[in-house]
Amino acid sequence: MFRYFTAGESHGPGLTGILEGAPAGLQLSEDFIEQHLVRRQKGYGRGGRMAFEKDRAIIQSGVRFGKTTGAPIALSMINRAFEKDDSNWPKVMAKDGERGDVERITLPRPGHADLVGVQKYRFDDIRPVIERSSARETAMRVACCSITRAFLKELGIEIGGHVIQIGSVGYKGWDEVRSIADPLFSKGAETIYKEADKSDVRCLHSELSAEMREEIKLRRKEGTSLGGIYEIVVTGLPAGLGSYVHWDRKIDGQLAQAILSTQAMKGVEIGLGFEAGRSRGHEVHDEITYDGHFSRRTNRAGGIEGGMTTGMPVILRGVMKPIPTMIKPLRTADLETKKEQETRYERSDVCALPRAVVVAESVIAPVIANAILEKFGGDSMEEIKSRFKQNDR
User: Fold this and answer.
1) How far apart, in whole angstroms, are the C-alpha atoms of residue 150 and residue 365?
2) Which of 43, 107, 379, 381 maximizes the CB count within 10 A of its CB?
3) Is the Cβ–Cβ distance between 218 and 350 less than 8 Å?
4) Domains in the chain: how many in total?
């Protein structure tokens, strides 16, 4: 089964990742991983760091002659912010020696991990919390999860995402999204992300894209930040991934965990999601059809019923809160003096949602890959492909 770990700090020397469980014989290159890292760095509303970080994951083990060996795959990625000539980070993030004159950060930001992290680990300085809880960590997550995307791709399973709302600007409802997105992913879900990537806010609707950019401009002038909602689609899945027999084997629960484990995510919905709670039964449930194989007339369930995939495209949405670091400060209380004052500013995006789409696409890939391995098994791509093809889809 796929499992991955990341290590490293936002402004440390670099990030490290280890992915285990990749079967032998999977074609893999650093260039394939890089394409999603490049996508993660693009998007309107991004911060200044993206101007100089050029992320590339270096494969250190587990791959020989362009194919995985079945051994753990180790990845490394340098932080250019640490290496800049004028950087003070080697001193701030030094692994040896004494603190000296390095500044202690004592003003926790509302909405961030700062205060609770200090309370949990008993630090007298917020810097360790800032560094590890930073969304910079998602660069290595994208790298690790890109390997599982390569695995799924060889089985004909594709993942693609797009933005449906930024701040107050977005689609009017489920049907409007479906009218634009569904014709695209009939050719595979990657068509969605390739089309969405043409917009710097990753929205498929050109008029809404322009309105979203204006919304970001307006909030930047105000010194505040924006969140929003994105949609992820997965195509090529067979029926029966996941299970109804135990709570922790339900694939919708596993997908929700993957999304909510990502920085700044506050909600997940599958298919109609919260809209289903405002609707009548006949407006929610999908009629079953048979034309040589079972299918559904609609897909309001988002491709999952009873904790299992139905064979229809999986459709899920994630909600991202506005980033807590803002030019216009909020009030906080100093850890040391306990006095209330305004927060300090750390360089940040105004809106990271367009970049978060790529992260969300990535983190759900191991969930789906593991569901495939659970159902079909195998230690090599040859075995898995053979068993997967025999499945009545």
Assistant:
1) 9
2) 43
3) no
4) 1
